[in-house]
Design goal:
The protein has 516 residues and is of the alpha/beta class. It contains 16 helices and 20 strands. Strands 1, 2, 3, 9, 10, 11, 12, 19 and 20 form a 9-stranded mixed β-sheet that branches. Strands 6, 7, 13, 14, 15, 16, 17 and 18 form an 8-stranded mixed β-sheet that branches. The chain has a 3-stranded antiparallel β-sheet with strand order 4-8-5. Helix 1 crosses helix 8 and helix 12 crosses helix 14. The termini are far apart.
């Protein structure tokens, strides 16, 4: 049974107070608890939801058939719109909650967002309409005890606030307008059954009514809670996570609505038992007088830290005043939250399982996005053209086995290599001084400040070239020799070898061409 607000009055008093003022506070509490079940799933038996066709119940009757079925209606809606409109595919999109709605808002640069227009499905006018605010600049800053921190300014990085629900709503209307396509809400994935020439997906609505749908391929976009990802990756679909909570609120005093605060720490790491984490803030002006603030931290999945969103939300409301001044008219409009996944690929290319026969994982279910910019939206936008063209080629050729569908992937060698840098941001009280993450990242900011501006823009837009990363790393090592010991503490022999594999794979990837 989901907890009610009254049940967390004493355990999470700051969260209780804030959510009690929201008309949909109970609903959001339920969604947060749903996401927090991820931690319980890691200790449970690996799910068995991908079945052979012979296990399909004898009385199962298909309600309808499609070319593609999407389990999950958030980022998957963008992919579905292109497959339906551009390629004329008959698609079904279903979601356990409300399709076309996100629990997070998105930031991106205008030039990146407009890559969606390249698909021919979204017009530039439509994309302009989902930008609710454009900033003049943005900055990154990490706390130094003596106040000597470097505030690094950058242009064209996460400088457009996007109304996520509006963009997804546009995509959903395009899907629904296509003949033979459908979108279902309040519909959960139960399991799927694979045959040689199709897949059957079993679903259940909120009343427990079961339905079966047939398709050529199932696209899993169920996010971090995907039971398919859990099964294909033997119960460990992520190696690192970034729990993230925040609000869209109004009534802050002295905020700059022309500037995005991309990363900002206000103090050293928490070092109490079981709570060793470097908290980082983020602040982005949104529509009207609303301002979005996030609190998050990077961590290994296997660490003993409290990574629950409930606990982090309580900390957020307790410590928000350390980051922004709340005036007498301060009001929370809605909470924003999620568990951002990341994966360390111990190899020369992708090592995480993202496909099986007639099944392909996209978005957070695939965990291939950047762990530093902590959002699958940017990854989906950058790769939407190739992800849709690749799946269309597979469908046209009838090549829907595991090996073919693995190539329909948002894996980017540069992003995989950057995942190693995220490890330095995972605070460990056993090896790190309290201000270690801040000190190291401050040196990175100093190094970037001494380089041409395209270096900083490339790093924070996941566009960095291998030679550019090498320049930054050498400069940081020269200025901050302590990073060498940190490399041993954070990576060790196995991790260092893995990093070299990633870098080698990145170098070799330049010679490869798309398979289709």
């Amino acid at each position: 049974m989901p907890a009610s607000l009254s049940q967390i009055r004493t355990t999470h008093p700051h969260l209780f107070k804030a959510f009690s003022l929201l008309p949909d506070g109970e609903e959001h509490l339920g969604r947060i608890e749903e996401l927090d079940r991820y931690w319980e799933q890691l200790d449970h038996t690996v799910p068995d939801v991908v079945k052979d066709g012979s296990a399909l119940p004898s009385g199962a009757a298909l309600s309808s058939t499609y070319d593609i079925i999407y389990a999950g209606g958030t980022l998957g809606m963008l992919h579905a719109a292109v497959m339906a409109v551009r390629f004329g595919r008959k698609v079904l999109v279903f979601d356990r909650n409300t399709p076309g709605r996100s629990t997070r808002d998105w930031n991106i640069s205008r030039q990146e967002l407009f890559r969606l227009a390249d698909t021919g499905v979204f017009s530039k006018e439509e994309l302009d309409s989902v930008i609710v605010r454009k900033y003049k600049t943005g900055w990154v800053e990490f706390h130094k005890e003596d106040g000597s921190q470097k505030r690094l300014y950058m242009q064209n990085v996460l400088d457009c606030a996007v109304d996520a629900d509006r963009l997804l709503g546009l995509a959903m209307e395009k899907v629904k307008a296509m003949k033979g396509c459908a979108v279902l809400s309040g519909t959960s994935f139960v399991r799927c059954f694979r045959f040689s020439d199709h897949v059957v997906v079993e679903t259940a609505d909120q009343k427990g009514n079961v339905s079966w749908f047939g398709a050529q391929v199932l696209v899993d976009v169920m996010g971090i809670l995907s039971p398919i990802a859990m099964q294909l990756n033997r119960g460990r679909p992520q190696t690192h996570v970034c729990p993230t909570v925040g609000t869209s609120a109004s009534g802050f005093l002295g905020v700059d609505f022309q500037t995005g605060e991309i990363l900002a720490s206000t103090g050293p790491a928490e070092t109490s038992p079981g709570r060793g984490r470097q908290l980082i803030w983020e602040g982005f002006p949104a529509k009207g007088d609303e301002y979005i603030t996030y609190l998050f931290f990077y961590d290994e999945v296997a660490s003993p830290n409290d990574k629950s969103l409930l606990g982090l939300f309580d900390t957020y409301f307790k410590r928000l005043g350390e980051y922004k001044n709340m005036g007498p008219d301060f009001r929370v409009h809605r909470p924003v939250y999620g568990i951002i996944p990341a994966y360390f690929h111990d190899g020369f290319s992708r090592t995480r399982e993202i496909a099986d026969d007639r099944i392909v994982l996209l978005g957070d279910a695939a965990s291939l996005a950047s762990p530093l910019t902590f959002c699958g939206f940017g990854s989906m936008v950058r790769n939407l053209e190739s992800l849709t063209a690749g799946l269309e080629a597979a469908l046209t050729k009838g090549s829907l086995g595991k090996r073919a569908l693995e190539k329909v992937s948002a894996y980017e060698p540069n992003v995989a290599s950057m995942a190693n840098l995220m490890k330095y941001m995972c605070y460990d009280s056993a090896t790190d001084e309290p201000n270690f993450v801040n000190d190291l990242m401050n040196e990175v900011m100093v190094a970037l400040d001494d380089l041409p501006e395209h270096y900083r823009e490339a790093m924070f837009r996941d566009e960095m070239k291998i030679e550019e990363l090498a320049v930054v790393m050498l400069r940081v090592a020269w200025r901050y020799p302590e990073v060498l010991k940190a490399t041993w503490d954070k990576l060790g022999v196995e991790g260092s070898v893995g990093f070299l594999k990633n870098i080698s794979g990145w170098a070799l990837s330049r010679m490869k061409q798309p398979w289709w």
